[in-house]
């Protein structure tokens, strides 16, 4: 959520930056309501001045023994008008708060201007796609052929966009979770957290999923519980309504959670395989930083996510999202896109974002620069480190062999206790 006073004082500049996102900025309604509020407050001040003067006049008349009935009636009338205008101003304040909740974050000046993903800017690549002397298969063919991935039984148990993993397929998922958490905690300095997977509405509001993205969430009927769409939500809300001492910053947290999304509005996109599922696993990275350090921390967070891909030997590219492709609450985002031979394209596997104070303002997360200083909002950042299912796909497709087997990346072998995945002994 944007700062109200900053928005009022920098309306034209904010409007110009928000316009680069495309669509309505929501600021026309903001200006209209703010004018009504200012007008009501100005009139209240004028009427209160009249009431004060009138009260002095009544007191003087009473000292002189004069009848003040008519004057008192006018004062009561002024009082009613003041009360009504104060209520108007109060309602305008509430309306402004609601409007602020619908206004997206202001893109950072370094974000490339553009209407959508076509204007995203590639800034680097790592690795080369593997050279294969055969036609590579997509994971939705490879997985079932190896007996490690089962869509039919998942559909029987639950429905579409779910998967069952068998044998080494399930163990590969678990190995990736352990590998990622160990790298991030031992080598990158994150503290591991195991948060609840059920979260309340206040937490979802704090990280901007509510009210705007309610349709993309799963709610537990009869409870104020929602299934977590990402560990970003519980991790960020660990410090909701808290003031952190400056010496603790940056705070770096890493967590594995299952994630649940209805994928509203994604019909027809990635309907095959496990690229876009209602349930998937992810290791998430979250940071709380001082404002002046947040963009340096964004670079290091992105590098931490990239390190996982490099250790696994998976080719990828890093792109800066354009203004038109930014998420609602992000000021700047890097996407990591891994190469998938079976699909013959790069696919997003991590989004690393700086939200500046946008989330912290909603969640009321502050820090105190020093003992005597005034508290300020922290900056929050997060990124996938990485999406487990998509990493699983990338390994299966990039390390597939002509005989249909899959070589296990060297970095994962201690976690999987296997060098190759074959169809022999498959449980599916």
Q: Keywords, please?
A:
Helix Hairpins; 428 residues; eight-stranded mixed beta sheet; BirA Bifunctional Protein, domain 2; alpha+beta; three-stranded mixed beta sheet
Please summarize what this structure is.
With 428 residues, the protein is α+β, with helices and mostly antiparallel strands. The protein has helices at residues 4-9, 11-19, 27-63, 69-102, 139-146, 152-157, 167-187, 201-206, 232-236, 294-311, 358-363, 388-398, 413-416; strands spanning 121-126, 149-150, 164-165, 191-192, 198-199, 226-227, 243-245, 251-260, 279-289, 316-320, 332-340, 345-354, 366-368, 376-377, 379-387, 406-407, 420-421. Helix 3 (27-63) packs antiparallel against helix 4 (69-102) and helix 7 crosses helix 12.
Commentary on this structure:
With 428 residues, this protein is an alpha+beta fold. The chain folds into 2 domains: 4-102, Serine-tRNA synthetase, tRNA binding domain (Helix Hairpins, Orthogonal Bundle), CATH 1.10.287; 117-421, BirA Bifunctional Protein, domain 2 (2-Layer Sandwich). It is 40% helix and 19% strand. The chain contains 13 helices and 17 strands. The chain has an 8-stranded mixed sheet with strand order 1-10-11-12-15-9-8-4. A 3-stranded mixed sheet has the order 7-13-14, with no helix packed on it. Strand 13 (366-368) and strand 14 form a beta hairpin. The protein is elongated and about 110 Å long.
């Amino acid at each position: 959520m944007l700062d109200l006073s900053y928005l009022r004082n920098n309306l034209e500049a904010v409007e110009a930056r928000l316009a680069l996102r495309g669509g309505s900025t929501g600021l026309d309604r903001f200006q209209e309501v703010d004018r009504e509020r200012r007008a009501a407050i100005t009139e209240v001040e004028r009427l209160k001045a009249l009431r004060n003067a009138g009260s002095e006049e009544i007191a003087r008349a009473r000292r002189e023994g004069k009848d003040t009935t008519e004057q008192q009636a006018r004062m009561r009338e002024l009082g009613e008008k003041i009360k009504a205008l104060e209520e108007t101003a109060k309602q305008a304040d509430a309306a402004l708060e609601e409007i602020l909740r619908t206004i997206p974050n202001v893109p950072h000046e370094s974000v490339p201007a553009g209407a959508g993903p076509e204007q995203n800017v590639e800034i680097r690549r790592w690795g080369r796609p593997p050279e294969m002397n055969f036609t590579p298969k997509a994971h939705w063919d490879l997985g079932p052929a190896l007996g490690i991935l089962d869509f039919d039984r998942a559909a029987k148990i639950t429905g579409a966009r779910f998967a069952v993993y068998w044998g080494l397929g399930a163990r590969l998922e678990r190995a990736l979770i352990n590998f990622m958490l160990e790298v991030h905690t031992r080598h990158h300095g994150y503290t591991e957290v195991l948060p609840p997977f059920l979260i309340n509405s206040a937490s979802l509001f704090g990280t901007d999923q509510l009210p705007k993205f309610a349709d993309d969430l799963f709610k537990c009927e009869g409870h104020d519980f929602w299934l977590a769409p990402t560990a970003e939500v519980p991790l960020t809300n660990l410090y909701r309504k808290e003031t952190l001492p400056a010496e603790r910053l940056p705070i770096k947290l890493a967590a594995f959670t299952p994630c649940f999304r209805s994928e509203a509005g994604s019909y027809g996109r990635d309907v095959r395989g496990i690229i876009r599922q209602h349930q998937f696993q992810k290791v998430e990275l979250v940071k709380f930083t001082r404002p002046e350090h947040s963009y340096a921390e964004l670079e290091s967070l992105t590098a931490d996510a990239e390190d996982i891909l490099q250790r696994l030997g998976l080719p990828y590219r890093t792109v800066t999202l354009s203004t038109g492709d930014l998420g609602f609450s992000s000021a700047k985002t890097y996407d990591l896109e891994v190469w998938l031979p079976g699909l013959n394209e790069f696919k997003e596997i991590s989004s690393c974002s700086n939200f500046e104070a946008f989330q912290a303002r909603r969640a009321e997360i502050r820090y105190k620069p020093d003992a005597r200083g005034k508290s300020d909002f922290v900056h929050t950042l997060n990124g996938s480190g990485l999406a487990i299912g998509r990493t699983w796909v990338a390994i299966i497709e990039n390390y597939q062999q002509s005989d249909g087997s899959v070589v296990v990346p060297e970095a994962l072998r201690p976690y999987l206790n296997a060098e190759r995945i074959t169809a022999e002994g498959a449980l599916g």
